[in-house]
Write a structure and sequence with these properties.
- It is a single chain.
- By secondary structure, the protein is α+β, with helices and mostly antiparallel strands.
- The chain contains six helices and four strands.
- Strands 1-2-3-4 form a four-stranded antiparallel β-sheet, covered by helices on one side.
- A hairpin with a 2-residue loop joins strand 3 and strand 4.
- Helix 5 crosses helix 6.
- It is elongated, with a radius of gyration of 26 Å.
Length: about 190
Amino acid sequence: MYYLDAVILKLINRGSIRVKNFLGNNLVRWRYLLISVFLGVVLCFQIIVSATDSPDLVVNQFYRWYIQNNSRSSARISEQETAFTPELYRLLAQVFQRRQGIDFDPFCDCQVGTFRMAVQSVRQYPDDNLLTEVNINVYSGLRPPGSPRSIKVLVTQDGDRWRIQNLIYSVRRGDNDLLSILREITN
C-alpha cells in the first residue's frame, strides 16, 4: 500500500499545488477509490469472460471443431453432444452410427471438404427470445478457398446454454432443414 501512496504522491507533486492541497488529507479515500475502480474492472472482465455462451459463439466453436475434424466428424460427434439440442444430437448419432441413409455432409450441405466458416448475421426472433438465427457461409470445395454455401443455424437457449436446434439449407429442394431430413431417415 505504501508503494501506491508514493506513486499517487508523485503524480500529485507533478500537478498543481491546488490539487495537492485538495488531495492531501483525502489520500486514503483516493487510494480506496482507485482500488475499488481496479477491482470493479477486474470483476467486469471476469463476468464477461465467464458469461454464458452466445448463439454465434456456439456456432463458431462447433464449426471450428468440425473443420478440424472434417473427415472424422461423424465418428466423433459425441465430442459435441452439448452443442446440439437433445433431439438433434440423438438423430445425428443414430444416422452416423448406421453409416447409411445420408448422402451428404449435414454441416455443410455438400459432399466435399469444408475449409472455413464465417458468421454473416445474427437475428433473434421477435416472438421467441429463446430462438436465434445465425446465418453463416460455409466455404467448401475440392481445394481452398472453396465456394460459399449459405446455411441458417437455429440456436435455442436451453437453461444457461445455447444449443444448435436445426440447420436450414438455402439451395435444397423439398425438405430443406436437417431435422426433417434426419426424422425421415430414422423413421
